[in-house]
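input
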Amino acid sequence: MNQQHFEKKSTDKKRTPFKLTLIILILCFIWWFNNFTISVHTEIVHDDRINSEITIVHISDLHSASFGRNNANLIAEIKRQKPDIITVTGDMYTSNDSNGEETAQNLLTKLTEIAPVYYVNGEHDLKKSFSEALSESGVNVLNYKDEVVTINDTSLHLYGITNVYYTPTFDLANKFEPDSERYSILLAHIQNFDKFASFGIDLSLCGDTHGGMIRLPFVGAVYTPDGGLFPELSGNRIKGMYQKNGKRMFITSGLGNYPLPIRFCNRPEIAVLKLKPNK
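output
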């Protein structure tokens, strides 16, 4: 009996390192999967002013990350979506990261080979020289500019703003004229949905929040600096599609892992917005 007990104890000791190794490997895989693999989030929007389907790929908050060598995996995934236009809402590199700045510029330049690219800055990538380099590379920099684009037989009115904060008197009407005849899309790094909707923007595309980085089922983001603990339970807009008086805003959780790679239930994201005619 004692011999059997000794043998069982010895076997248990041998199994313990294997179990610990297996647990560590599983945790490492979960961490890697949540932080370094790309997800695709698709939203469908119908409107009377859309005459034929338009595909928009929206990305944000790369923060100098690379998915594959020279972002080959990211570029391939974007190309797979067959976008008509690509929209980018800032923080494509982290402040004072010259290598990351080059990574971001190379990525956006390569994306112009897939579809027209429209970009606005965030609080990290607001250097004038970066925007100028992008313009020279064929990227459409919407630095408080608007542009009407025609895709197939549908005209879209694109607006872009560069705000990294908002004053109480912020009003898009100080710069732009609303356009009810065309479907309007605003690019803004940081959301201000009430003001965007009151101006008449049909679809606002934003980033900045990183989706809260760490998310839990049913409660959403665990913490954001502006919203505190469980901000979505208090009505804060952190990730996904929102509607107000017939207007929409989509916030992507972005691609990068700034300040640390601690994403959970919130993988790096490519957003695909499909605009379709009303049935």
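quick obs: The first helix runs from residue 2 to 36.
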